C-alpha cells in the first residue's frame, strides 16, 4: 500500500480543539494528537467527512492556534487528518514552538502493588 510522504513530520501535541464545519456550521469538540505547520490529527469517534472545510481553534497553556482547514482523511471511530488552508498570523509562534518542544508524555499510572513498593 502506498503511503504519501508528509511535507513535514508531525509532533505529539495533545490539546483541546474546537472545529466548525463551514458549510453546515456543525461544531465538534475533540483533542489533537499531533501537529505541524501543515496540519494536525484530531482524535474523535465522529469525524467530519473527507473534503469538509473547517474553522478550528486549538488551545493549550493559554495559547491558541486559529486556522481554516480541510479534512484530508477521515477514519470513523478514530479521527481525521486536517490540512491547514490558512493559519492566523498570531498562531505561527505556537505552531512553530510545538515542533521544537513536544508535549511531555503523561505520567504512568501505577497499580496498587506498584504504589506499595
Characterise this structure.
By secondary structure, the chain is mostly beta strands. It has one domain (about 10-105): Beta Barrel (Thrombin, subunit H). The chain is about 10% helix and about 50% strand. It has 2 helices and 6 strands, in the order ββββββαα. The protein has helices at about 90-100, 110-115, and strands spanning about 10-20, 25-35, 40-45, 55-60, 65-75, 80-85. A 6-stranded antiparallel barrel has the order 1-2-3-6-5-4. The longest helix has 7 residues, at about 90-100. The radius of gyration is 16 Å and the shape is globular. It starts with 10 loop residues before the first strand and ends with a helix.
Overall pLDDT confidence: 81
Helix content: 10-25%
The CATH superfamily bears the name: predicted glycosyltransferase like domains
The CATH level-2 architecture is identified as Beta Barrel
**Could you say what the CATH topology is called?**
Thrombin, subunit H
